[in-house]
Amino acid sequence: MQRGEIVLEDAWRSFSPRGDRGRTLKELLTSLGGRGGRGGELPPTHALAGVTLRVAPGETLGIVGRNGAGKTSTLRVLAGIIPLQRGRAACGGRVATLIDLASGFGREFSGRENIHVSAALHGMTRAEVESRIGGIIEFSELGHFIDAPIKTYSSGMLVRLGFSIAAHLDSDVLLIDEVLAVGDEAFQRKCLRHIRRKIEEGVTVVLVSHAPGTIEAACRRVVVLDSGRVVFDGPTAEALRFYHRMLGAEDATQAAAREARDGAVRLREAALQDGDGRPRQVFAPGEPVRVVLDLEARADAGDVTLALDVRRADGQTVFRSRAPVPTSGGGGRLVFEIPRLALLGGDYDLPIGIHEPGDTAPGIDRLLSFSVTSSDEAEGIADLRGTWTFSGAPVEVGP
Fold it and tell me: Which of 108, 113, 175, 292 is deepest in the core (most CB within 10 A)?
């Protein structure tokens, strides 16, 4: 095979929908004797059902489909993570995978130590790791948390670290599964720029994503999977139209795309900073946080209301604030300061919206994201740590 070439020929792979609960020795022996088999078994689910694909060296292929359509299974087969039951799968040259990025990390090790271990497992020498570790740390934007045990990391921080390691591997084929959803908007753009550089260098890329914008930005060819089969293979625009029609959601998708705001006030820039004014996306509980918003206003602009929420990754609102902004005198910088971040470990979204008078359906103008490291001293969402005393004497709180 040529370096960078990808081949799938009549690929089949099925899984038990219930999994294998394991069997006792008696059950195993009786099944070998042809008696006592477990009745009522569900038929296997075909993750791949005769998939045939060829990707030329240097080509960029997008894969879309419903949940369970076989997208991730396709990447795992190409990466050699799971074997085929029938057919052929092959990639020419060195393969780098951005699939389940946080797997394989040692929880007690620091981020820096996990870089060394993970890079070594991918075949990098110590000298290669040392020459690239600075770039990996800088790309991850984890700052001084790179030397903290990763058991204190949120899931978003783990994925940042995993992407940064994988992004600095030498490869002929790059397999990517939904990793561009990590981090805030700026980090996602940086990840996409890195993938474009890989494409320009001639790396073959296979990208799985539910985000049509990401697929359009990176891929010229798209495959639509459904129930483990290829139902469309062609140019990106045609493939996405086919996919939306297949979902019965073309009109809904178009309606959901928010039109550009034609209001008098616009959010030109939004950023998160630490107490010293440095850009940050990862914080420890109790640290100061600043939300800095640059507003642009026309001369005829009236007053507006700025809406700011803090939400958990599951969408639950943990904080909400509204502030009237007198933009009738022009634009300016609006700063929301949190002297002490009273949140515990996790990933959080921070949607921001400008509500003008008369808005009937105000939307979100910008979405920032940030992560908070975990603590051994407390669990939950809110950081309400205080002091314990027993009979007037302080009580030592352990992990």
Answer: 175
**What is the residue-wise DSSP string for 68-128?**
TSSHHHHHHHHHTSS--SEEEEEE-S-EEEESSTTTT--TTSBHHHHHHHHHHHTT--HHH
Q: At what angle do helices 126-140 and 155-167 cross, to 10 degrees?
A: 130
Indicate the number of domains in the chain.
Answer: 2
Please give the single-letter amino acid code of residue 316.
Answer: Q
Give the domain extent around 183: 6-18+44-254
CATH code, 75: 3.40.50.300
CA 227/CA 120 separation, integer angstroms? 37
Write out the two tokens for 245. 């029609």
Q: Can you tell me the distance from the alpha carbon of 213 to that of 184, in angstroms, rounded to the nearest whole number?
A: 16
DSSP H or E segment with residue 266 = strand 265-274
> Is the pTM here over 0.90, yes or no?
no
Gap between the Cα atoms of 142 and 146, Å rounded: 6
Predicted confidence (pLDDT) per residue in 44-101, tens digit: 778 899 999 999 999 999 999 887 888 989 999 998 888 999 999 999 998 888 777 6
386 found inside a domain:
no
